[in-house]
């Protein structure tokens, strides 16, 4: 879901000869709601002594964090709108070549709009307490739909990255593996939550965080993914 947009044209902030006319409320909140702090952050982030990059027709900072400040060109106006890009070019997607960042940005934005989260049994029990069986059904269907949309987003990304010979470039192979692993984890949490809610733990769900499939027992653990 897109964040609310706030007019910041009175700040008279200029980047590459274009005014920055608005910011997302999320970006402003990250600066404590302080417009002057936001102005300084954007001015410094896209200044001559800072590292930033062009991603399609957008400008992104390049920092060590897991999110970047982004300037989007305003339609039909030589101006910028500022918001967050919810990934890092030096962290999350450091391996992505500069000429493929625009493709990744489309994928990242699509995932962010889905607001993907991990469903758990307590979520279903809370829904049942608030709205009965119909509320549980709606919650499960919403998560199923998000998993389907995430699969479609990943399918689109792979189709855009794959070489004419049908093989992913070397730099993309680990990246795609991570994304598929995250999708698998989301789907596994969904199915485990539904099974546990209706029928019990089914031998307890495995821990699927960080790319593993680990089952915990009284005297130790077994990870089905061998390093």
Largest sheet: 7 strands, mixed
Distance between the termini: 37 Å
Helix content: 40-55%
Mean pLDDT: 92
| Beta-strand residue fraction | 15-25%
Overall number of strands: 9
| Total count of helical runs of at least 4 residues | 5
Radius of gyration, rounded? 21 Å
Global morphology: globular
From N to C, what is the helix and strand string? EEEHHEEEEHHHEE
Q: Any low-confidence stretches, pLDDT <50, length ≥5?
A: none
Structural class: alpha+beta
Structure overview:
With about 230 residues, the chain is of the alpha+beta class. Helix content is about 45%, strand content about 20%. Strands 1, 2, 3, 4, 5, 6 and 7 form a seven-stranded mixed β-sheet that branches. Helix 3 (about 100-115) packs antiparallel against helix 4. The protein is globular and about 60 Å long. The model has no long low-confidence stretch (mean pLDDT about 90).
Structure in a nutshell:
The protein is of the alpha+beta class and 227 residues long.
Looking at this protein, list some descriptive labels:
single chain; 227 residues; alpha+beta; seven-stranded mixed beta sheet; 5 helices
Please specify the SSE layout and strand pairing:
Elements lengths: L4 E3 L6 E2 L2 E7 H6 L4 H11 L6 E4 L2 E4 L6 E6 L6 E6 L15 H14 L6 H41 L8 H30 L14 E4 L2 E4 L4
Parallel strand pairs: 3-7
Antiparallel strand pairs: 1-3, 2-3, 4-5, 5-6, 6-7, 8-9
């Amino acid at each position: 879901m897109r964040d609310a947009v706030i007019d910041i044209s009175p700040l008279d902030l200029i980047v590459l000869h274009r005014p920055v006319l608005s910011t997302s409320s999320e970006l402003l909140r990250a600066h404590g709601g302080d417009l002057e702090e936001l102005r300084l952050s954007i001015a410094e982030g896209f200044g001559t002594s800072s590292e930033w990059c062009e991603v399609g027709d957008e400008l992104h900072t390049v920092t060590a964090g897991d999110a970047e400040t982004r300037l989007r060109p305003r339609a039909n106006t030589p101006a910028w709108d500022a918001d967050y890009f919810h990934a890092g070019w030096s962290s999350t997607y450091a391996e992505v070549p500069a000429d493929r960042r625009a493709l990744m940005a489309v994928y990242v934005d699509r995932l962010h709009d889905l607001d993907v989260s991990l469903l758990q049994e307590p979520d279903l029990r809370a829904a049942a307490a608030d709205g009965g069986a119909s509320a549980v059904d709606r919650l499960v269907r919403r998560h199923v739909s998000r998993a389907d949309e995430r699969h479609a987003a990943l399918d689109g990304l792979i189709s855009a990255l794959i070489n004419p010979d049908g093989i992913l470039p070397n730099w993309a192979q680990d990246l795609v593996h991570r994304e598929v692993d995250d999708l698998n984890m989301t789907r596994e949490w969904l199915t485990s939550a539904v099974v546990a809610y209706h029928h019990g733990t089914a031998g307890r769900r495995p821990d699927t965080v960080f790319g593993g499939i680990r089952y915990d027992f009284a005297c130790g653990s077994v990870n089905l993914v061998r390093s």
